[in-house]
Write a structure and sequence with these properties.
Blueprint: E1 9-10, E2 13-18, E3 21-30, E4 33-50, E5 65-69, E6 80-84, E7 92-109, E8 112-129, E9 137-140, E10 157-161, E11 179-196, E12 199-209, E13 253-261, E14 269-279, H1 284-288, E15 303-305, H2 306-309, E16 312-313, E17 319-320, E18 322-323, E19 326-327, H3 328-332, H4 341-358, H5 367-370, E20 382-383, E21 391-404, E22 407-426, H6 438-451, H7 460-468, H8 473-478, H9 484-488, E23 517-539, E24 545-561, E25 582-583, E26 590-600, E27 604-613, H10 670-683, H11 690-697, H12 703-709, E28 729-738, E29 750-758, E30 810-818
Parallel strand pairs: 1-6, 5-9, 20-23
Antiparallel strand pairs: 2-4, 3-4, 4-7, 5-6, 7-8, 8-11, 9-10, 10-15, 11-12, 12-13, 13-14, 14-21, 16-17, 18-19, 21-22, 22-23, 23-24, 24-25, 24-26, 26-27, 27-28, 28-29, 29-30
Length: 819
C-alpha cells in the first residue's frame, strides 16, 4: 500500500508493479570486424486501486473525496491543507512491452576505430485510467486558520469523472481500447581517430525516429463535425493554423564530437572537451491526453468541474443544472461540504450513467461537442501542429589527473541546454482582460442586480443599489461577469446552450469557443554545473583491512527552466509572456556526496554513503480569492492574461511582483519575503486588476464601485516570527555485510547476510522536490508565510517504496547467495 505522497493527505492507493526482463545476445568476430547482436523483451504491468473505502483511514465523508486547498486533485505538494477519500489516480491499469533488436559493430584500422550500429524497438502499451472514477472530489479552495472541520467548508468546486479510462480507440493487451504503439528506429556511426599519440578525436552521428508519439495518423477536424457553425478546420477557430495535422518528426539527427588530450604524454593527465545533440524520449502521457478530444466517436476518459459551468455537461450536448431537486450552481455549490455528500455522489453517477447510455456513437469529450480543451477542466491538452522532438545540446570541458597511484581527481564544466520541451498556453486567451464582451457583461450585471432586488438595469444607480444590498464582485461573477474558465468551466458558450452574449464577459479572442490549452514545443531549460570528483582505492591500507575504495563529489550548479517538470504536461506561468524562466524545481546550488567501501579479513565489509544538498527554490504566488474560482480575475490576475488565479490551475494568483520563477531561495529569503510583502501591501494591494480596469474603461463600473464590491488585489499576511524557509537535505546510510564460504569444496558458493541502516543519524529532512512548502501566500501552515518549525508537516517519507532519500531512519535486512 502506498501512503499519501503529500502532507496532510489521507488518500492512499494500492500499487503493484511487475516487470519481467529477458535478454539474449551473441558476440563474434569476422576478420577485423567485431559484431554484437542483442535481443531484449521487457513487459511492464502496473495496477492502482483505491485503498480508502471500507478501511479505518481518516475519511470524514465516505463516498466522496475532499480537498481543502488550491489543488483539486490533491497531487500538488504543499498546496492543500487537507485531503481525504479515494485517490484521484485510482483505478488504473498500465501495460507496456518492449521487443528490441540491436546490432553493434566495429573495426579498427590505422589510427581509426569505427563503430556503427542500428536497432529497432517495438513498443506497445495499453492504459486504463479512470481518474476521479471512484468518487467525486469536492473542493473548498481556501484553507482558513483555525477551521479544522473539513465538512464545514463551503464547496467551491466539484470535479467528476465519467468513469471511463481509455484514451485511444485502439485495442491492446486484451483491452477493447486504450492501446498505443511506437516503432523506434535508431542508427549511429562513429570514428575514434588517434590524431597524435596523445590526442584523440571522436566524431559521430546518431539518428532516431519514433512513431506513434504525435497522433499524426489523425486527420484535421472539420467544422462540419462540430456543433459550431463554421467552415474549414475546427481548431483554426482557436487560432490560425492550429487545425493542421500534427507534425511527425523524421529528421532527428544528433551529431557528437569529442577531444581527449594528454599534454605530458605520461598517462596521468587528460584534458577533455565535447559537444553533442541528444534527443529526448517524449513520454506517452503527453499523447494520451491529446487523442480523446480529436475523436468524434468512442467512449473515452473525461472529467469536468460542475460548479464553474453551473451543471453537468452531458454526452448529448445538454447541461443538466439540477440534482435531487436542487439547483447545482446555487443549492449545491457554495453549501457546506457535509450537507451535500449525497448530491455530489449523485452528480457523478448521473454523468457516468449517461456516458454508458450514450455509448460509442458520441464522444462526450470530443472538442467538436464541448468546444474546449483544458487540462484542469476537461482533462485533455492537445499537441500543437508544430510539434518537435525535445532534445538537448550538451557542452563539456574538463581535466582528469592522477594525483598518485590509485587516486584520481576529475573536474568538469558542463552546460546542457534543453530545447523544444512541451509548454502549454491557451491560444484563445480565455479570461484575458483585452477581450471583453460588453453585451455578455451587461447581461451578467442585469441578472445580478435583479437577483438582489435592484431591477434589471445596468446603470450606476442599479449597481449602487446592489452594493447597498451587500453585493460583491463574486455575485456578479457567478452570473457571467467573469472569465470563461470561472463561469463556464472553460467550455465554449454554445456547448452550454448559451450564445456568446449570454456567456462569459471575458470569453477570449473567439467568444464562440472556449479554452484551448495547447502544448507547443517552446520549452527551454539550461543547466550549468562545475562538477568535481575525487576517487581513490588502496590495498591493505591498515592492518586487518584488505582494501578500501572511496569517492567524494561536489557540484556547484544552476538549473533554470520555464516549468517545474519538463517531461509531463506543463502550462506557462503567463499566457501572455510564455518566455518566463527561472530556477527549476530540481535546482540545488550545492551538492556534496561521499562514500566508501571497506573489505576486511574473514569476509566482513562496511560501506557508507552520505549526501548534503542545499535547499531547493520556490515560486511565490498571490493567494486566490476567498471563494476560489469565480471572480479571481478581479483580485489575483495581475497581468490580465487569464491564467492562474483559480482559473487554469485552481491553485494560486499570479507571481508576487518583484519575483520570477524560483525566486524564493535564490535572491529572496525569509527576510526578503517579509520586505516584499510589506511593499506589496503598501503599494500593490487594494488596486484594480487589468480585468477590473477593462470594466471601468468600458463604462460599466466606476473604480469606486469596484472597490466597494471587493474587486481589488488582496493584502498578504506577513510571515510569522520564526517563519521557516526551505530546508537543506542531509543523510548518512550505512551497510554491513559478512561474506561466508560454508564449504571449501564449493569454491563459488558464498552467502552474505547484510544489514543496511538508512539515515543513520535520523536527521529530519523537509522540503523534498515533491513536498516543498507551498509558495501560495495565504498565511496558513504549510506555506512560506505561515509556517514555523512547530507547524512543519512535510517531513520526507517513504513515498511509493521501502526507501526514499532522506526519509526517517529505517533498517533493511538481506541475505545474498552467490554461486
Amino acid at each position: 500500500m502506498v501512503r499519501g505522497f503529500i502532507p496532510n493527505t489521507f488518500t492512499p492507493f494500492k500499487n503493484v508493479d511487475h516487470t519481467p526482463v529477458h535478454a539474449a545476445g551473441v558476440d563474434f568476430n569476422t576478420g577485423r570486424f567485431s559484431h554484437n547482436i542483442r535481443f531484449g523483451y521487457t513487459k511492464f504491468k502496473n495496477g492502482i486501486v483505491d485503498a480508502v473505502l471500507g478501511t479505518g483511514i481518516t475519511d470524514p465523508a465516505p463516498g466522496i473525496a475532499i480537498a481543502i486547498g488550491g489543488d483539486i486533485t490533491c497531487l500538488g505538494a504543499g498546496v492543500d491543507a487537507f485531503c481525504s477519500g479515494p485517490n484521484f489516480l485510482a483505478p488504473q491499469k498500465t501495460f507496456q512491452s518492449n521487443k528490441q533488436t540491436k546490432y553493434d559493430g566495429s573495426i579498427s584500422f590505422g589510427r581509426h576505430t569505427l563503430r556503427y550500429g542500428a536497432g529497432v524497438n517495438r513498443i506497445q502499451g495499453a492504459v486504463f485510467a479512470a481518474f476521479v472514477g471512484t468518487a467525486p472530489i469536492v473542493t473548498s479552495l481556501t484553507p482558513v486558520a483555525g477551521q479544522s472541520d473539513p465538512l464545514t467548508y463551503p464547496v467551491d468546486a466539484i470535479l467528476i469523472g465519467n468513469g471511463q479510462g481509455f484514451f485511444t480507440e485502439k485495442p491492446g493487451f486484451g483491452f477493447p481500447a486504450g492501446g498505443s504503439s511506437d516503432t523506434r528506429f535508431t542508427a549511429y556511426f562513429g570514428d575514434q581517430w588517434k590524431l597524435r599519440t596523445n590526442l584523440t578525436a571522436t566524431i559521430g552521428l546518431r539518428y532516431v525516429r519514433d512513431t506513434g508519439r504525435t497522433d499524426n495518423d489523425l486527420a484535421p477536424i472539420p467544422c462540419s463535425a462540430s456543433i459550431l457553425n463554421c467552415t474549414g478546420n475546427l481548431l483554426d477557430q482557436f487560432g490560425p493554423g492550429l487545425g493542421a495535422r500534427v507534425r511527425q518528426p523524421n529528421k532527428n539527427f544528433g551529431p557528437q564530437i569529442g577531444l581527449a588530450w594528454d599534454p605530458w604524454k605520461n598517462g596521468k593527465t587528460a584534458i577533455r572537451a565535447g559537444f553533442g545533440i541528444y534527443y529526448e524520449n517524449a513520454i506517452w502521457n503527453n499523447i494520451l491526453f491529446d487523442r480523446p478530444p480529436r475523436l468524434q466517436k468512442g467512449i473515452f476518459f473525461a472529467i469536468q468541474e460542475v460548479c464553474s459551468q453551473g451543471g453537468i455537461a452531458m454526452p448529448n450536448g445538454t447541461l443538466q443544472t439540477t440534482i435531487n431537486g436542487k439547483n447545482i450552481a446555487t443549492q449545491v455549490c457554495g453549501q457546506p461540504i457535509g450537507s451535500l455528500v449525497a448530491d455530489a455522489k449523485a452528480i457523478e453517477a448521473a454523468l457516468q450513467q449517461a456516458t454508458v447510455a450514450a455509448g460509442a456513437q458520441s464522444n462526450s469529450g470530443f472538442i467538436g461537442n464541448i468546444l474546449a480543451d483544458s487540462f484542469n477542466n476537461t482533462g485533455t491538452e492537445l499537441l500543437a501542429p508544430s510539434y518537435r522532438t525535445p532534445y538537448s545540446m550538451q557542452f563539456n570541458i574538463g581535466v582528469q589527473r592522477e594525483l598518485h597511484p590509485g587516486t584520481v581527481l576529475t573536474v568538469d564544466y558542463i552546460r546542457n541546454v534543453g530545447l523544444h520541451s512541451l509548454l502549454g498556453y491557451d491560444t484563445n486567451h480565455v479570461g484575458d482582460a483585452r477581450y471583453l464582451n460588453v453585451n455578455a457583461a451587461l447581461n451578467a450585471i442585469s441578472a445580478t442586480n435583479n437577483a438582489l432586488g435592484c431591477g434589471t438595469g445596468t446603470d450606476a444607480a442599479s449597481i449602487n443599489c446592489a452594493i447597498n444590498a451587500k453585493a460583491t464582485i463574486f455575485d456578479y461573477a457567478r452570473n457571467g461577469l467573469d472569465s470563461g474558465y470561472g463561469f463556464l468551466g472553460s467550455l465554449g458558450a454554445p456547448a452550454t446552450g448559451r450564445t456568446p452574449d449570454t456567456g462569459a464577459a471575458f470569453p477570449g479572442i473567439n467568444p464562440s469557443v472556449g479554452a484551448n490549452q495547447m502544448l507547443f514545443p517552446i520549452g527551454r531549460s539550461a543547466y550549468n554545473g562545475l562538477q568535481m570528483k575525487l576517487t581513490s582505492q588502496k590495498t591493505d591500507p591498515v592492518p586487518g583491512m584488505k582494501s578500501v575504495n572511496f569517492v567524494i563529489s561536489y557540484a556547484f550548479s544552476r538549473l533554470s527552466a520555464m516549468a517545474r517538470d519538463g517531461d509531463f504536461i506543463n502550462n506557462a506561468f503567463s499566457f501572455r509572456n510564455t518566455n518566463l524562466r527561472g530556477p527549476n524545481g530540481l535546482d540545488r546550488r550545492h551538492q556534496l556526496s561521499g562514500g566508501a567501501t571497506m573489505d576486511f579479513k574473514y569476509g566482513a565489509s562496511l560501506s557508507f554513503i552520505t549526501h548534503w544538498y542545499s535547499p531547493l527554490p520556490s515560486n511565490l504566488f498571490l493567494r486566490s480569492p476567498s471563494n476560489g474560482m469565480p471572480g479571481a480575475i478581479f483580485t489575483s490576475d495581475l497581468d490580465g492574461d487569464g491564467s492562474l488565479a483559480g482559473n487554469t490551475s485552481g491553485q494560486s494568483g499570479d507571481l508576487l511582483p518583484g519575483t520570477t520563477i524560483g525566486s524564493f531561495g535564490r535572491g529572496v529569503g525569509v527576510s526578503g519575503l517579509a520586505a516584499l510583502i510589506n511593499q506589496w501591501n503598501s503599494s500593490g494591494a487594494g488596486k484594480l486588476t487589468p480585468a477590473g480596469q477593462s470594466l471601468v474603461d468600458a463604462g460599466l463600473f466606476t473604480q469606486a464601485q469596484l472597490v466597494a464590491l471587493g474587486a481589488v488585489t488582496p493584502t498578504i499576511a506577513a510571515p510569522p516570527a520564526g517563519e521557516e524557509g526551505l530546508g537543506n537535505m542531509f543523510t548518512f546510510d550505512l551497510k554491513l555485510g559478512w561474506k561466508i564460504k560454508p564449504a571449501h569444496r564449493w569454491e563459488r558458493l558464498t552467502v552474505e547476510p547484510q544489514v543496511s541502516i538508512y539515515n543513520l543519524f535520523n536527521r529530519q529532512n523537509f522540503d523534498s522536490p515533491s513536498q516543498p512548502l507551498s509558495g501560495i501566500l495565504n498565511g496558513t501552515p504549510g506555506t512560506l508565510n505561515g509556517t514555523t518549525r512547530g507547524d512543519r508537516s512535510n517531513l520526507v517519507g517513504l513515498g511509493s517504496g521501502v526507501f526514499a532519500l532522506g526519509a526517517p531512519r529505517s533498517f533493511e535486512f538481506g541475505f545474498k547467495v552467490v554461486f
